[in-house]
Design brief:
The chain has 469 residues and is an alpha/beta fold. The chain contains eleven helices and twelve strands. It folds into three domains: 125 residues, Response regulator (Rossmann fold); 98 residues; 143 residues, Heat Shock Protein 90. It is 61% helix and 15% strand. The protein has a five-stranded parallel β-sheet, with helices on both faces. Strand 4, helix 4 and strand 5 form a beta-alpha-beta unit. It starts with a strand and ends with a strand.
Length: 469
């Protein structure tokens, strides 16, 4: 779509400038400031791939331009998007009834406009490819039909010749031909059934293998989490308790030291001087100020360790039959907590969480999905990059978006990334199951998972889950 041409039809210079800013770096943009000029450009030697059409213009308005373009066979297939200041439903309905593929009210954000333009250009590309394929197949069928006709004519001539020589041979040939056709049909049916059976068995075996690997992986994580929690929780409890006690003891010690310093006022000057020098050489004033900061930092670090252990237990406690109302933001934070070490090693993390109603789901399985997407983002980045994670509530969907600035996925393989056992990683570094398992988990929750990517720019995964009624 980089070389796709877009015709912008708008009499407002500000709008044209804004649209050029949003689209000019991605597409080849041509501008018409009125309907007459738009018709000339669209019907010229180089037709545009898509038209952004304003409605209110001097002379021929946008609706009439749309009517004339759709009436011309040469321009009828060009997708038209009305982008206008009109926002009433009647105008939108009229534009769509006239043949427009979309209706956008001004002002429109750049990402939203680019997304819609990309979608309709992609739909046009698929439609053009399909039409080309239909033409090719039609030509092949016509050629086959001609060949079959010629073959039938030759057979008819041979049949007439044989009929002149042997009347009985016709009957024998007909009988044998009928027998062969029956055998051929039976053989074809048997081959089709065999292929179907083989395909079913292959799919069953792949699903079993995938499920077995997935269950073994989750069981290993669960055992690891239980072991880590058991080994860390008890000593962490001692550490936090002792740090709190140390804070109290230090406060009492400093209180006692203050009383001693006050009592030293009655001692001889020589003793006071020696003690003051000792106080200075031991830097007791700095120690008194720093000890509580050290204890506070240690308590904060211990609490962080306790939270990681809790998140690890929460992440790994998997029961696939458990469906509860879950805070999607909590799932995101839990997965990030587990993967933060890997993320910090290669990327800066940007997190944006929106208010989302509860989602009915298995939280541990959703944790696994988000963790897989974060791990893919980490592996996709070379050098130092950025990973953005955000949540959003849109209509009846809770959405999680994971975006990275990694290598990107080539368009020729992006359609296969959710296939079982398909991986672009080096041998030994990936099983090809992460995205496939994630896809199945999201589908079983009644949701959707989509991906967009550009080589050299990055990749974006969007997970949509239905919120609870």
């Amino acid at each position: 779509m980089k070389n796709a041409s877009i015709l912008i039809v708008d009499d407002d210079r500000t709008s044209v400038k804004t649209l050029r800013h949003h689209l000019g770096r991605l597409f080849s943009v041509v501008v018409a400031t009125n309907g007459e000029q738009a018709l000339l450009l669209a019907q010229g030697s180089s037709t545009p791939d898509l038209i952004l059409l304003d409605v209110l213009m001097p002379g021929i308005d946008g609706f009439e331009v749309c009517v004339q373009l759709k009436a011309n066979p040469r321009t009828a297939a060009i997708p038209i998007i009305f982008i206008t200041g009109l926002s009433d439903s009647a105008s939108e309905q009229k534009g769509l009834e006239l043949g427009a593929v979309d209706f956008i009210s001004k002002p429109c954000s750049g990402p939203r406009l680019r997304a819609r333009v990309r979608n309709h250009l992609e739909l046009k590309r698929h439609r053009d490819n399909l039409e080309s394929l239909v033409h090719e197949r039609t030509a092949e069928l016509l050629l086959k039909q001609q060949q079959l006709t010629e073959l039938n004519e030759r057979l008819n001539r041979q049949h007439i010749e044989l009929e002149n020589h042997r009347d009985n041979l016709e009957l024998l040939v007909d009988e044998r031909t009928a027998e062969l056709m029956i055998k051929q049909r039976q053989l074809s049916e048997m081959n089709e059934k065999l292929e179907e059976m083989v395909a079913v068995e292959v799919n069953k075996n792949r699903e079993k293998d995938m499920l077995m690997v997935h269950q073994q992986k989750l069981a290993s994580i669960g055992q690891l989490a239980a072991g880590v929690a058991h080994e860390i929780n008890n000593p962490m409890s001692f550490i936090m308790s002792n740090l709190n006690s140390l804070s109290k003891y230090s406060a009492k010690q400093l209180q006692y030291n203050a009383a001693i310093e006050e009592a030293l006022g009655d001692c001889p000057a020589e003793i006071r001087s020696r003690l003051a020098d000792l106080h200075h050489s031991l830097d007791l004033h700095f120690i008194a100020e720093d000890i509580f900061a050290l204890i506070s930092e240690s308590l904060e670090g211990a609490e962080r360790i306790r939270k990681i252990v809790h998140d690890l237990k929460d992440f790994a406690g998997i029961d696939e039959d458990t469906m509860i109302e879950t805070d999607l933001n909590h799932c995101v934070q839990s997965a990030i907590s587990i993967a933060r070490g890997k993320i910090n090693a290669v990327a800066d993390l940007e997190l944006s969480l929106a208010d989302i109603p509860p989602v009915l789901c298995n939280p541990q399985l959703i944790n696994q999905v988000i963790s897989n997407l974060l791990e893919n983002a980490v592996h996709a980045i070379t050098g130092r990059g950025k990973i953005t994670v955000c949540t959003e509530y849109r209509q009846t969907w809770g959405m999680v978006t994971v975006t990275d600035t990694g290598r990107g996925i080539p368009s020729e393989i992006i359609g296969r990334i959710f296939d079982p056992f398909y991986t672009t990683k080096e041998v030994g570094k990936g099983t090809g199951l992460g995205l496939s398992v994630s896809y199945d988990i999201v589908k079983k929750h009644g949701g959707e998972i989509t991906v967009t990517s550009e080589v050299g720019v990055g990749t974006r995964f969007i997970v949509k889950l239905p919120v609870s009624s």
